[in-house]
Write a structure and sequence with these properties.
With 167 residues, this protein is mainly beta. It is 14% helix and 35% strand. Strands 1, 2, 3, 4, 5, 6, 7, 8, 9 and 10 form a 10-stranded mixed beta sheet that branches. It is globular and about 40 Å long. The chain starts with 8 loop residues before the first strand and ends with a helix.
Length: 167
């Protein structure tokens, strides 16, 4: 019997959302430092999801923060800059750093029990840009939070986070 609280959400690939922390964006953590970013991008009430080829899963655009020159004062990437870069790389969508609204930190556990923390951002776009598939991302989909996905699985942890971060 475990005395740890039930996860807020679980995903089809074994990910668990342990907590969503509405703390200041510049918060620092010793346990599970911020290592990834996610972006909930909205257009006309629809959420942008990307289809990740090797997981066959629809997810929020996002990924790792570039650690080059850690800490950011030494040339490393801030979570906000990583969010802009990952959104562009994974979906072709362009958003200025100042147009992102910081929503909070997701604390997640992977199937191997490793705990990670990610910075979650939200933004609205009036003019989505065209998408070209990449080696990593096969497609994008503007989702209404209800209809089934065209193929593949939905990362339900990301859908839960997007609802929390909605602009």
């Amino acid at each position: 019997m475990s005395d740890s609280p039930a996860p807020l959400a679980t995903g089809p690939l074994g990910m668990r959302l342990l907590a969503f922390e509405r703390l200041p964006e510049d918060s620092r953590f010793t346990e599970a430092p911020v290592g990834y970013v996610l972006v909930a991008l909205w257009h006309a009430g629809l959420l942008l999801l990307v289809h990740v080829r090797h997981r066959d899963c629809w997810e929020l655009p996002g990924g790792s923060i570039d650690p080059v020159g850690v800490p950011p004062a030494c040339g490393g990437e801030t979570p906000r800059r990583a969010a802009v870069r990952e959104l562009r790389e994974e979906s072709g969508q362009l958003v200025a750093p100042d147009d992102l609204r910081f929503a909070g930190f997701a604390r997640t556990a992977l199937p191997d029990r490793r705990v990670l923390r990610g910075a979650v951002y939200a933004a609205e776009t009036a003019a989505p840009t065209a998408f070209a598939p990449t080696e990593e991302i096969t497609g994008i989909h503007w989702w209404n939070l209800e209809d089934p996905m065209p193929h593949g699985q939905l990362q339900t942890v990301d859908a839960y986070l997007a609802a929390l971060a909605r602009v």
